[in-house]
Amino acid sequence: MARQITSSCNFIFGASDMKSLPDESAPEIAFAGRSNVGKSSLINLLINSKKAARVSSKPGCTRQINFYSMYNDKFRLVDLPGYGYSHAGKEEIIQYLNLIEYYLIQRKNLRRVFVLIDSKVGLKEIDKDFIYWLIYNNINFNVVLTKIDKVSQKSLDAILEDTQKWINNENVSIHQISIRIKHKITKGEVSFEQKAEILLEVLSNIPSFVGETFVIKCGSVTISDETLFYTFVHNVVLLKQLGINPVIVHDGEYEINSVLKMLGMDSKFVNGIRLTDKDTIKIIEMALCGSVNKKIVQHINSAGGSAIGLCGKDGNLIKAEKISATLKEDRSNNIEKILDMGFIGRPTEINPDILFFIEESDFIPVIAPIGHGKNGETYHIDADSTASTIAIAVSASKMITFSDTGEEIDKIGGRKISVKNLNASIDCGKIQGEKFIRRLMAYTKMVEECAGVVHIVDGRIPNIMLDLFTENNSSISIVSDL
Q1: Which CATH class is domain 211-479?
Q2: How many CA atoms lie less than 13 Å away from 254 in the CB half-sphere?
Q3: The domain 3-206: what is its CATH number?
Q4: Could you report the per-residue pLDDT of 4-30, keeping only the tens digit for each?
Q5: Residue 312's closest CA among 281, 358, 347, 279?
Q6: Is 247 a residue whose pLDDT tops 60?
Q7: Torsion over CA of 406, 390, 225 and 298, rounded to 10 degrees?
Q8: Is the model's pTM score more than 0.85?
């Protein structure tokens, strides 16, 4: 029988054998580590209770798997028995280690394991053996350094460097936390306890979107920066593991420009749009579909996810039509000239069937903004328009667009704006720039036709996507009505 701990948490029960494990109806996040590493203390902090998980100075007090149901069982925190030295008897140790192994391998609803490492001693051989075992069995995990208040900053830096160096090729994020102290907060700094509170807030808000689709437009800055890209793909995988269906749409201007420059091909832009002839569209398609798309797919797979790369030609995914640009011949008059932009298009129709099929699987679709015309022409499409049109076709609840410069956030101002107020700001000239306004029109179309929300985030900030699941997030939200 469940025992209520806080308004948001229930202790379900402790499982001491395979038969007593609870049902697999809710996503689970497990905490593992050596005996007395601080698992119970961390769980108590996360669920805002001092007595939920028993804390003891004697190693090995947790001898069963304890389950904590969060927010009406939207997800569960799982406290695993510690491995290593224990006051338990040999037979009992073997019994609960077998239980841990069974749980980690067989549990279908296990989304991620946090492996706790005592920063006073760093990685021990038994930790490395456990991590190798997780990798061998394809179990997703992150590392958390605990008790960082017990070591000097110099020692902590050395432990962190050694841990990162050892685990460098395993695509694993490393976090740091202290349970017992609260540091003074100055501008730009966050206490360790606040970090834990933020983690809980993220974990508690994500399950409310389980089963929903997020279309995420990833910009060039995020893809080309190693740190930003690393956190991006890991966050995408985490969303999928927690039951959200991410659909990735990417651009790749940095790669297009690099290849064109290498080939000695100059580009001309009109109103922010590249003039694209037959030779140029071939280069663009190669850069987007053959390079950038494959890079994202590969890194999502390496981070523990399963991604599949698509362009608009695959499965008739994106039908497009040619667009032209309007250019004033002379600033002194209103005479306008219609300019043929070549193989630049706009999306006219999305075939959602292939995306619905992928949505039912464990795969994450990664889409390059290349479409095809009615006569088989290839068109390069703006990534924001592509993402917006796809979001409408699949009835996404959110569209998240990564800004390369943060200009959208600076120009719009505020943190939430309605479509009506955004259009008014454009009409009165408060918001200017033809290319910028085109992007905003794509966003408002998604909000109006899909009844969803568009979040504009600063793509230059690591882990910015998880920030969306906190109450005071830093994104710009475009909504249908305030």
Answers
A1: alpha beta
A2: 11
A3: 3.40.50.300
A4: 444 456 676 788 888 889 998 888 889
A5: 347
A6: yes
A7: 170
A8: no
